[in-house]
């Protein structure tokens, strides 16, 4: 049973975290391209479309990505290692990465997408939407700054996952280390 759970855990990590890290890493580039083209005229439809798709990938895979810690906890419980230091550190880093994704990365991506893009189509935006629509779109310089900060945050997110992977492989202090 432990081998099945471990296999599902690793498969879920590869199939969910991988696409999130790639899509989140690419998003700032396309947000900057859309802002640069907007400064010269209408924003690039291609750059806006790609940024929208990358955001939907991040959001969708984040929802499905809950399977990674679920299978991980089940595997740890099955193996009786839930109190091992390397596993506790991995769980803490995973929680931090998830918090970065949900509380910083996804909201900043939404901030960089135009209001009438994926969320505002079809009217009925309500008072909050009308208030935001009245605001001037962010300047190219502001968009570039937001995209740069988002890229740095995404880099930290990716680094956290890299450390988790190393901890999962090396398992320092584990009696089951290879």
TrEMBL record:
Sequence ranges of Gly residues compositional bias: 119-128
Transmembrane segments: 85-106, 150-170
This protein's UniProt keywords: Membrane, Transmembrane, Transmembrane helix
Annotated region described as Disordered, given as residue ranges: 115-139
Name this protein carries in UniProt: Uncharacterized protein
Organism annotation: Streptomyces zhaozhouensis
